[in-house]
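Ticket #4471: structure output looks truncated?

Reporter: J.K.
Steps to reproduce: submitted the chain below (565 residues) through the standard prediction queue, then opened the result file.
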Amino acid sequence: MSPTLPQSPETLVPPRETDGLPALAAWHAAWAASAGLFALGALWLAGLGGPAVFGAMAMVPPGLAGLALLWRDGVVERALVLALWTLAAMSASVLSGGLGGPLAGIAIMPFVAGLALGGPRHGVRVAQGGALGSTLAALAGQISALTVGPPAAEPLLASISALLAGGAAIFAMRLSWRLRESRLTAAEAATGRVETLLAAQPGLTLVLEPSGRVLAAYGTPPPSLDIEALFQHGLMAAVHAPDRPSLLSALDRALAGQEGQTLFAPRLALDRRVNMIVRRMDDHDGSARLIAQAFDATRQFATEIGLEAARADAEARNLGKTRFLANMSHELRTPLNAVLGFSDIMRQRLFGPLPQKYGDYADSIYQAGGHLLDLINDVLDVSKIEAERYELARESFDAREVVSAAVALVRVTATDKGVSLASLLPEDALEVDADRRALKQITLNLLSNAIKFTPVGGSVTLTLETIGPYLELVVSDTGVGIAARDLKRLGRPFEQAGAVEQKAQGTGLGLSLVRSLAELHGGRMNIESTLGEGTAVTIRMPVVAVARAMPPEGGAEIIPLNAGA
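Returned output as attached by the reporter:
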């Protein structure tokens, strides 16, 4: 059966010194009453008079003073009560003639009171103070006997005072030791609870020396670690040899005050894995210790290995798919160019007239072939980029020329659809260091998308400018717009937004190719859109060629250094 822990939170609190305060007050009250009765009995029964009676009466105030601890208790208050016990004992010893008088047993009462007042925490010191008080009382009595002379023999009263002091000592020792035993029992119970908790934990906790020697072990060890072997041979011997440097590094990090963590294979079970976390724990004497927690990580390790294998397999499959698309796109373009060439010859009636129906067929073949060629080109470019086979042909050129050429290519399409196309280009030359074809492709794709999804009467605006070293190309339209939930998907291959009829107008490769080409230049693409109002796509690339100022004719001007300055 598994160990259980107590449910009551009160059992976790050790007894305090104030827990025995009522018994301590009762002990003082009993002594005050006994001392008072003893004084009255000595006066009435034995006919004892004079200073000895006052000495017996002097032992009553310390008992009454102990009752005041019920209202205010502390180290200072108990020290004052002990001092009063010492003064009272000295007074009784002096008045009764010292150790040979009828109150000889009273001299031991400061020590007895020290036992009762000390408690479990300050018991030794207070008892030592009480012993000093008893010594002073005995010395004072002896000095009095030597000065005044020996007292008359009163064996009965001396016996009674000794019995009173002995009984008070018995109850004082019982009072003190009972509280000590309560604290000891509580400490043992707390230690047992902690050990039970440590033994019931799911992992293994080890207390180590910096060398790796195991000092203590708690909890449930992983199936691959043997506790007996750990104690006999140490932690290092239980670890597979190739993993020992990693374990040593974790121990060094822990000794340096950091958290050390390592994963190792046990020497006797190489198919399993153990995850260990190590931290520094300074001992009570200041010596360095390490506390380590070990857990069985075999399942986690197997899962990670499986995920890594699955990822590698997925990457291999994706690479194979990309290479297949690249090869197939290249092979398809050759016959498609022939189809486009022959259909164009038929469209233009270069070899004679054609019936109207056949002419219409030729136009449809040419348009469909052109669309298919564009699609194949996009697939080929995207495949090359994904396969990391696309190489930029960087050169210095005026970006306005490339952008203007792209605008000219789509202007006829915009005019036929009834869409207004405007371009805002800087007046000065805009030198960039980029791939000319890639920049033209970016511009064409953005303008074609904007015109395609802008209704009749709408407008498309292209803006080209520089911001520091960045070339910024913005294409905005007043088209149908894009929903917010679709914005995050756009830019990935074959991802489209909008209704079914809108998706039928494209393939989902245009924006993906734009994003990839911009990233190859070290730039990025940003899309802002409001459904029903329009879209703005911004391309920003760090390709602007920074012009350096030419030195003045004749070289730089030399300014003489003013020695006086």
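Triage note (M.O.): checked the attachment and the full token line is present. Residues 1-15 have pLDDT under 50 and may be disordered.
Status: closed, working as intended.
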